[in-house]
Amino acid sequence: MRLAALLPLAGVPLFGWGCEGHQAIALIARAHLSGAASQAVDRLLGENPIDPSLNRFCKDRPADPMADAATWADDIKNIEKTGEWHYIDIPLAIARETPDVSLWCAPVGPLLPGKDRTGCIVDAISYELAVLKDPWRNASDRARALRYIIHFVGDLHQPLHAEDNADRGGNCTSLAFFSEDRPSNLHAIWDFKLIEHELALNRQSQPRFAAALDERFSQHWAEWGQPKIDVVAWTWESHKIARDTAYAALNPPIPLERVDSQTDCSTERDRVAAEHIAIGSAYDDAAEPVIEEQLAKAGYRLAALLNQIFPQ
Ligand SMILES: [Zn+2]
User: Fold this and answer.
1) pLDDT digit string (tens) for 222-247?
2) Which helix or strand (DSSP H or E) is residue 278 part of?
3) Could you tell me the domains of the chain?
4) How far is the CA of 288 from the centre of ligand 1 (A)?
5) CA 59–ligand 1 middle distance (angstroms)
6) How far is the CA of 135 from the centre of ligand 1 (A)?
7) 15 CA → ligand 1 middle, Å
8) How far is CA 304 from CA 57, 143, 307, in A?
9) What is the pLDDT of residues 256-306, one digit of tens each?
């Protein structure tokens, strides 16, 4: 049902993980929060609720306040002009992982009339972490910062939010998705289509999906649940997955564009469409395990981050 509702939006660069992905990450994180962190998160979110008049895209609102908060940043992005905060456009052809990503990331800027706020996901996470940790900021600002962080840690683990191949992070591509009549794009396929496909295939509810992922990856908590927060390392990890799996597993693969090539969305879309690339079970087999690992990893890292911010 949600899939049908989303179809008219295919090709529009709106999301990072869909409702299911972001909510699963929050539910996995919740399961690993300390008692103190869990209480602090609920208090901050509960005492500073989301404006009830805000139009929420995810209509099946989860009972867990953290899972509900996880998709708020997408609902607010056109109002707060923070669309650029959800990704970083590191060219896919860049293989050398530099510790400084400022070449591809403008610093977070103020809200100016008629303009989008500058920034990218790496700076936006640092910026909102500083707000959340600042005891002198009012609780409403800190609650907003918490909602942004829950969302952006998720987005950063969606590999197509950490790359650009002269196609706006895979948005300007045209591919066939299983038997669907309308073409889709690689970004949407990674945001939500493969996850929706998996849930439909297994007739699995979203909370069960999250719990199953948590169980399957539980042995990784010791590694991914480390208090070490390295946003740049997480960025490069996603970028590499985009290159090695999201693009490379296509048949035929979309080649790497020159680092300085400009995006002309319709030209790129036509060029990819001419390749008649079809996403089917072979691609799904390569991508789905990677997506599931990224969801679990994001959940564990988010929990570790919040446990550090709200100590016992
Ligand atoms: Zn997003």
Assistant:
1) 999 998 899 999 999 999 999 999 99
2) strand 278-279
3) 18-309 (1.10.575.10)
4) 20
5) 17
6) 26
7) 5
8) 28, 18, 5
9) 998 888 778 999 999 999 999 999 999 999 999 999 999 999 999 999 999
